[in-house]
Amino acid sequence: MDTSELSMDKMPSSPDRVVEAELRLPKAEDIRLPEVNLEPARRVVKEVLLTSIGIGVLLVRGVKKAVKAAHDAGAEAATEPGPVTSALVGWLDAKPAEKAKLTRRVPVLPIENYDTLELGELLDHLGDLTEAEMTVVLAYERAHRNRNEVVTALDGRLGGRFAQ
User: Fold this and answer.
1) CB atoms within 10 A of CB 154
2) Does residue 138 sit within a domain?
């Protein structure tokens, strides 16, 4: 096939066709949604809500009754106590002096901001301390920075009683 065969002149003639289409979008006021009756759904939601509230009320009432029954059983067990009940009730009825005391003394450094002071500032504060306070500072200094100048000054003020 050559190009002369494809020319427009040699095309078979056919009537021209014109297709026209018109699209119109509806206006908002023309759109109608179907009406739905929500009353049955509202009734179901209300019933579920009421049932949930009822479950909560019954649960609280049940817990309250269970706690009261447990207290009554404990009080009854205390009237004729077994070995465990006797030990527990005896421990609770003990006088404060009979209970074990757990105390521990923790020394507090008598010099504010001790770890941030320069050596000269620290040595200036030592003259204001009592013997007990100097003992605390000496123990702290030995355990932490162990600066010879501070240890020597404190040990000298304490009469050399704490030399290592």
Assistant:
1) 20
2) yes
pLDDT of residue 4: 53
CA distance readout (Å), 111 to 18, 63, 126, 127: 104, 56, 9, 11
What is the pLDDT confidence band of residue 94, given thresholds at 50, 70 and 90?
Answer: low
- The single-letter DSSP state of residue 118 is -
How many domains does the structure of the chain reveal? 2
How many whole angstroms separate alpha carbon 91 and alpha carbon 28?
81
Convert the pLDDT of each residue in 4-23 to its tens digit: 555 555 555 666 777 788 88
pLDDT at 16: 77
Asked whether the beta carbons of 111 and 122 are under 8 A apart, the reply is yes
Residues 125-139 as b/e (b if ≥16 CB within 10 A, e otherwise) read: ebeebeeebbbbbbe
* Structural domain of 47: 39-93
